[in-house]
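Quick log. Single chain, no ligands specified.
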Amino acid sequence: MQVFFQTIIGGISLGAVYALVALGFSLVYRTMGLVNFAHGNVVTVGAYLASTFYLTTKLPFALAMLVAIAVTAAIGLVIERVLRPLENRDFDLMLIGTIGFGIVLDALVIMIWGATGRAVPSPVPAAPIELFGLRIRTYDLVVLAIAAVATVLLVLFLSRTKRGAAMQAVAMDHEAATAVGIHVGRSNAIAFMIGAGLAALAGGLVGPLLYVNPALGGALGIKGFAAAILGGFGSIPGAIVGGLAIGVLDSFAAGHFQGYSELVTFLVFTVIIMIRPTGVFGERTVNRA
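-> predicted structure:
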């Protein structure tokens, strides 16, 4: 039983990171109806930026994270601005455009930082906490706390601010939002900016947990994408639940199926989606004659 709970604790911290990635996917999708396939690559950029500012520039970890978030948010704005002429005209080209941006970002990462990775030491040097025979890394608690705060701030922004309400309106009905004077392009830009910032936050937080390398964003992007689908694509609560579920599932698979953990994780994910195609919080569409 102790091993069971220890595995859950280990999975939750990574699950929080997956949830942040899933939130970025879901936010852009619910606002624009677009899957941003460059999202995982932005995670990689955020991880490298945060590690560079922390290790090379010697900024405090929190400040390094904030600078990385600001830079990647700007990258998100650039991506949206380039894609804006295609909005509501050629959806397929927009999807291809996000893939192209992902390839460009991957190439830039290798050009700037090289193909080798780097290990990021934990910014919290405190020893693990012993609780009921369980060992909880202090940094895991930091990750959970930051992810929780980011999620609460996002929910408050969407539900309590005029700009957030405008984004919600665009998500529900693009044409009606335009008719009442909402600047759709600005709402889409903010969605891309926040999504990219969440990607950088996830990349920066996962650095001390995993090894930062050019393939990091691909792995996190796939699992974040799976988490968004599992929770119900476009659902904010679904992204959180899906991320935590994928994290715990991944942890159990790594502990019991070493070498095949990825395969087992996605097999279980596939079975769940076959049973519930719309995800946990997705709505089923009923066709009536």
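Residues 2-32 form the longest helix (31 residues).
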